């Protein structure tokens, strides 16, 4: 039986990741080390409290992290500094997740945003894939994998009235694939995503300003390839015309306006903060996004008898004491992925050097091309992309040493990250798509998107190599 008093005390753990955001924002704007230390301490305390409440697979990551600390203490003279840097990396990931969860929480209760998703899901069959893949991209910029949950739920609602099971299954599959691919393409360029922020932090000389436009080109390539493959493989006719579900013929500019306004405020706000203050993109995201989330809640109609200010306060309390603790598995996993990747890299670099492996002897184009494929391959083995990138990239020669532009390496890494997001049966995006599509994660991942990953991966590889030569 649940103890209400214990539940209330456990809910207070949400204060800790909220504190991590405050400390990390202060550090990003001041570069004062005590703020980074405070954020690390709060993040470690959060993980320590949440670990007993998570699944065994999450606890395994914690045990691996502890083992790495012991290993580093026995083998590195500067193990304390290495551990502190790893804890700071984990705190950064936790703070970013908390900030993005805040805006996702605000958007998911907005009637305008929900109606926008319903409009996309109700497009006529010939336009539905395009609508949902574009919608998956736009929603993914704000909601991350929450876009799959929202749009996927609305999509399955729209097909539930179809009496023919074969038609219903086929339509659901195509709609979920469109949403998956739309979301995955955001990982190539979005300043709000873990992919670009983590990659920029581990690739020396990289910046979001330099990588944004090439990343957008990558995203467009993925969207077009996904659309082309759907057009190539879709059945000519799924059902008689009179059996088609109701469609929405409203004006796109009107129906999508709330989402586009929210996107414009967030993306332009992050860009302006980044360029005006000089703070890194992650600092701009962590400081701006919670403010936008609070304003978005304030614009929503409060419950009867409550003022807007009281409504915002109540939602903030619920977010800290209920929403954040409910994401305990994700919080522990993401912190430990950043921590293990960072500390593991400290241990791996001297190990590689001790084995006499000279990665500088490998042609730069091979390293760049390999990064597109290594990340989705490790994703099939259950390795989180944050862990894979944080662990592998520091082992590589720096772009300056290889004589290549950092942007080419960033495009390769984020492209591989996007492919992993569409195919790995261990990622949240694929797990959500599998649950909504009522298939196994392996089917929703490599089964639905295997050919897509091969074609898109080949195109991304060529694009990264073009950037390597042209920049």
TrEMBL record:
Keywords noted in UniProt: Membrane, Transmembrane, Transmembrane helix
Keyword Kinase: no
Positions of transmembrane segments: 12-29, 35-51, 60-77, 134-156, 177-202, 208-229, 259-276, 282-299, 331-352, 364-396, 408-434, 446-470
Name of this chain's protein: H+/citrate symporter
Naturally occurring in which organism (per UniProt): Paracoccus nototheniae
